[in-house]
Amino acid sequence: MRYALRCPRFFLAVALAPVCLLGVVGDETGQAPRGPGGPQSPPGPPSGVVFEGVASCRRNAPPEDVARGITPAALGSVNSTYAAPLIAKYGLLMQMGGTVNAAVFDEGAVRDKLAAFMDGVNSRVVVRTNKGPSDHSTEVAIVMAAKGGQDPRSAGIAWDLKLLLSFDMDNDLKNLEETATTDNVVVSNHSYANQAGWFDDGTRYCWLGGPDNFDDARFGKYNADDSELDRILCEQTQLISFVAAGNQRAYIPTGKQTQHWAWLPNVNPATGVPWKEMNKERRPNRSNTGGVDTIAGLGISKNAICVGAINQFFSPYDPIVSSDCSSWGPADDGRVKPDVVAAGQKVWVAQNPNGEFEPIDGTSFATPTVAGVGALLVELFRNKVHRSPTSAEIKGLLIHTARDAGRLGPDPIFGWGSVNA
């Protein structure tokens, strides 16, 4: 089940060559589809997907996690509404992704006729889904690639992308492989994740980790989808996929033993009620360990870049603070996740269709920030090195230049640090 997301020093040697990281996949637990609703059961979780955006980040938001007094030596957080820092650093005033094709996989269609995506009478967005327009999909695309108008807040990171294809999440991996082959897409954004652990339907808590389990085994688990994504990225050596870590730490029961509905994975919703009302202690998504091991889904893959969220900061003396909902790693096999973090709180985006600006939160919007930076690095590489970079080269650049945060070296909260662009 997936959801959309609206939150001594170690050195890594990254081979600047295609890297094939494939793994063995363990047994899967049952996925939780939409519940039947009605008086006998709670409203079910979303059909396979939760978006890591505003609602999931703000609901039951706990106090902020300040990173142990760490202050960056220089600005390390990408401001997700301004591309100026990258322009100043690399002189990319006229090079803002204009040679790069990218794709957004999300809830539905990006609103392709917005002025932010138009070049004259033609839109740079090509819709490849039969689903209707989605605010979440459009907001993600705006952060990544909207053109700036009179208000500088309207500019995305890579505001001059040559082409932005809009897909929904159904058959995402199949469509990703096809568009990389046929459309020369080299950057993809995935602001959604598998639902696991606790789920708050707005009226009560629901537990998706199995009626008898204290932990949800899906957190941190390398699954079949992760393996398939790794295969695709191994074979498509220039394709870079950016995946949201998730907002799972926003779902917090009020006590150790909380009245809740537990999902019954072995009950067919067509023949029975797949929920059971229980009062049993579970591991909270945000526990006394701070909420580690709360990433589920494509963010656990080895070749994609998993992105967590931090609060905006504008001074080199400001602490780097984890967003109050952003999921934390590591992977069950010990790998560092998330890979990097970027601004995911109070990201200013023009709300559609009226065009008014509003701050939005979540790892959904930190991810297209980093994807936009990735697109700019691809173009920079093409202009300076005169060839397209491999995904391993872009990943190496992003993590090796990231500003460290939290404990010294990579950690399961900030990964390798805040993207520095």
Task: Explain what this protein looks like in three dimensions.
This protein has 421 residues and is α/β, with parallel strands linked by helices. Helices cover 19% and strands 19% of the residues. The chain has 7 helices and 20 strands. The chain has helices at residues 54-58, 84-90, 135-145, 172-182, 224-235, 363-385, 391-400; strands at 2-4, 50-51, 65-66, 101-106, 118-119, 122-123, 125-127, 163-168, 187-190, 192-194, 198-200, 205-207, 240-244, 257-263, 275-281, 305-310, 321-322, 340-343, 347-350, 357-360. The strands form 6 sheets. Strands 7-8-4-9-13-16-18 form a 7-stranded parallel β-sheet, with helices on both faces. Strands 11-12-14-15 form a 4-stranded mixed β-sheet, with no helix packed on it. Mean pLDDT is 77; it is low at 7-43, 45-49 and 53-88.
Brief overview:
The chain is an alpha/beta fold and 421 residues long.
Overall 3D shape: globular
Instruction: Give the total of beta strands.
Output: 20
Order of helices and strands: EEHEHEEEEHEHEEEEHEEEEEEEEHH
Proportion of helical residues: 10-25%
Q: What gyration radius follows from the Cα positions, in whole Å?
A: 20 Å
Counting DSSP H or I runs of 4 or more residues, the number of helices is 7
The biggest beta sheet is recorded as:
7 strands, parallel
Percent strand equals 15-25%
Strand order of the largest sheet: 7-8-4-9-13-16-18
| N-C termini distance | 34 Å
Q: What do the pLDDT scores average to?
A: 77
Structural class: alpha/beta
Low-confidence segments, given as residue ranges, are: 7-43, 45-49, 53-88
